[in-house]
Amino acid sequence: MFAPLFCKKMRLPSLTLMRKLLIISLLIISTAIPSFAEHHKDNTSSASTNQAESATAHQTDHNHSSTHEKFDPGRIILEHILDAHSWHLAGHASIPLPVILHTDKGFEIFSSGKFEHGHATVKGKYYNYRLKDERVIAVDEQGNELPEVTASIKDFSITKNVLALFISIVLLLAIFIPVANRYKKEPSRAPSGFQSLLEPIILFIQDNIAIPNIGKKKYEKYMPFLLTVFFFILINNLLGLIPFFPGGANVTGNISITFTLAAIVLIIVMITANKHYWQHILAMPGVPKPVLLILTPVEILGFFIRPFVLMMRLFANITAGHIVILSFISLIFVFYYTWGTVAGFGISVFSMLLVIFMSLLELLVAFLQAYVFTLLSAIYFGSAIEDSHHDDSHH
């Protein structure tokens, strides 16, 4: 799909453009803390209302300690990095997403806004439903879970990550279709706009990843996948660093997404691998048969470990980055609710510096993880189609 994008000339983006991108990134990052605070306020408001009577007797002496008990950094961080049935915007505002359930009696479709941020029970056509750790469960009239019904529910809801996937797909198509069409109509014209920004990246993937690891004769059929997976991961990594809509979703930090990407790599290897590759996996030539009893299971295990490493590497790196940034932001609230306003403001300076540093580091990681996933995929493809006599074009 991206083959028409190739061009002989390469033009790097100017330093002025890179400076502008850096300034824009810093402005975006600076909005993370108020967004985080508003989300925390939204999550604790209902709990504060329910406990108002018991808190009245101790409001003078235990104000900070009682409020600190309500602030749970682990829960708040998990709410930001895990999937959800609604997309939080600011304060009490959020985008309700459709809940689509298939039960043993049929489909149930309703808006996630009816859950009222997990505090309300939704009366459906067949059962009553509640949210439990962002998972839809079936309950009876008294609010007790019905385990057998819950186990039979298949959730096809449009969650936050699913919507973010659609957004990233629309962005990919909106960016690359016009660029590809321009190359088709005017292949000899000097690149401009998005072309000048994307062309160096595309040529880098072609010349430094695909050709050295797959070979000049066979790399072209793998280029559509390599380019698609690189820009898909990159766009979702960058969107994940933006703390407001349409950013903020942790798509590449979702194990289901990384599992699917790794599974596609595994399927491509299985389909395109030649006889020589399978020979080395199942019965390596020239190895004594007793040794094969040990070597063959190890090779088969290694065949599945490779995509597993791809999956875990992307998932762990992206998720860890979000957790570290949110942990530094949480320090401000922990110090404020424990030791008061002065301590909160004091630690906020230190936390903000660390947040800015980690956010800039995450910008680098966003590109690095897209590169590493694409590189390792190309290496796996190259090893699967390598001939028994080493092709010179590989090296």
Question: How would you explain this protein's 3D organization?
Answer:
By secondary structure, this protein is mainly alpha-helical. It folds into 2 domains: 3-17 and 160-394, no CATH class; 98-155, no CATH class. The protein is 63% helix and 9% strand. It is built from 13 helices and 8 strands. The protein has helices at residues 15-29, 32-50, 52-56, 63-70, 73-81, 147-152, 160-185, 194-214, 223-241, 255-272, 275-282, 289-339, 341-385, and strands at 86-90, 93-96, 98-103, 106-111, 122-123, 128-132, 135-139, 154-155. The strands form 3 sheets. The chain has a 3-stranded antiparallel sheet. Strands 5-6-7 form a 3-stranded antiparallel sheet. A hairpin with a 2-residue loop joins β1 and β2 (93-96). α9 packs antiparallel against α13.
Count of helices?
Answer: 13
Largest sheet: 3 strands, antiparallel
* Shape by Cα distribution: globular
Output the radius of gyration.
26 Å
| Fraction of residues in helix | 55-70%
Strand order of the largest sheet: 4-3-8
Strand tally, please? Answer: 8
Q: What portion of the residues fall into strands of 2 or more residues?
A: 5-15%
Q: Strand-and-helix sequence, N→C?
A: HHHHHEEEEEEEHEHHHHHHH
Give the class from helix and strand content and strand pairing. mainly alpha
Distance between the termini: 27 Å
Would you tell me the overall average pLDDT? 78
The number of domains is: 2
Poorly predicted segments: 1-68, 390-395
